[in-house]
């Protein structure tokens, strides 16, 4: 005769099943927000948040390049991180972000001459279907506010016939000032006294500013020049 399962064992089995179903449900919910083009990373990931008070916590996060808001996933909902001025740093997938004005910039090199990347994107019309299989184009880049409402809109799905056009803005912080550049020519204007040396280093090393590893090398070189 088979022995019946004890009540305590039965309870443990039920708890294990509930936990497994909860984990599976949570994974399915997180998978549903994967590969959204407006976000910097393909997936929301557990990230480390450090406050200026020295306290820290972890949250499942990603960065919305369209709204330029740090977004976290909590209880099936996407929420913007409020009061970015209270944040010291956020680390997502081993990449460091700091609040600057109303956005978060990625830290490329934290040094006396610091380099950052501001990740941005625009909503671009892909056109609307017209007669005979053609496409009717609307005005190119469209204001985010017209399509996603206020800054608290999380925009899980893009409006129909629109796509994301990502781009990057680069920043140098030195002498307590922030200097923007989009290309090599603009970067050289930030360092007029070192223009020849920087140009030679870029050419000899075959650097491309839009490649992160190359930008790190360039940032280190600029700091060496100004010691």
Short synopsis of the structure:
By secondary structure, the protein is of the alpha+beta class. The protein has helices spanning 7-31, 144-148, 184-190, 195-205, 212-225, and strands at residues 45-51, 56-64, 69-74, 77-80, 87-92, 95-100, 103-109, 114-125, 128-129, 135-136, 141-142, 162-174, 177-181. Helices cover 27% and strands 36% of the residues.
Q: SSE order, as H and E?
A: HEEEEEEEEEEEHEEHHH
**Mean of residue pLDDT?**
80
Structural class by secondary-structure content:
alpha+beta
> What's the alpha carbon Rg, rounded to whole Å?
24 Å
Helix content: 25-40%
Give the percentage of residues in beta strands: 35-45%
Largest sheet: 11 strands, antiparallel
Distance between the termini: 85 Å
Q: What's the total number of strands?
A: 13
Helical region count? Answer: 5
Query: What's the overall geometry?
Result: globular
Given as residue ranges, the uncertain stretches (5+ residues, pLDDT < 50) are 17-29, 130-154
Structural notes for this entry:
The protein has 227 residues and is an alpha+beta fold. The chain contains 5 helices and 13 strands. Helix 4 packs antiparallel against helix 5.
